[in-house]
Amino acid sequence: MEKRTDKNSYTLLFAVGMVAVVGSVLAFSASSLKDKIAENKRIETQQNILYALGVNENDGSSAVFVSKNKVATFFDQYVTKQLVLQGDQVVEDDQAYLIDVKAEKERSKSPDYSRKLPLFVGEKDGKTLYVAPIRGKGLWDAIWGFVALDENMVVQGAYFDHKGETPGLGANIKERYFMDDFIGEHLLDANGAFKGIQVAKGNADPKNIDKMDNQVDAIAGATITGDGVTAMIKADLSLYTSFFKALK
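Above: the chain sequence. Below: its structure as tokens.
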């Protein structure tokens, strides 16, 4: 009997069969790679935190993470506590680095939910530093970072990254020349109120000598990405203000 492969029923059955096969392969791959994916996420997050603390392998103008084979040892060495802030509560949690900042921001849109805020306490060169993760929106997609602060909310280090900003423009937020500009910048104004740091186009201090003006110089051609950095610093780091006030 002749097979008719031009019928709609044949096309439909073939499509269903292919979906089933491909779905099974993808499910198996995701399951088998689950531990590897989780391990890579741990390494990346810990590298980001260490970078903000100033523990890195920077070479000249390039930003270079601690190598993968060192990251676990260095994380244990430099990060002395992992905290979770939620409402008025502050608890220690040695897996605070696993908290999904994106998911927590979504949950916090509900008035009945108090967002979990991870905070990493580190010791570097005899100083106690506090690293907070931040997340926002750039021109095309998500941007995020980790900012190290001292007890006065003065920036001691920063790392920024992005999902899809324009190469050579907004993508340069992860270049060392931009990230290093934040070191020494104050998040509070002269009266002690939270102000944040503005990525300012036409900043009158392009060499970034004035560290109390709450501004850094913008990246040319990346105004919207810079505005996104400004917004995520203000929105996310302001949530930690009460913690730092309590330190005093």
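Residues 8-53 form the longest helix (46 residues).
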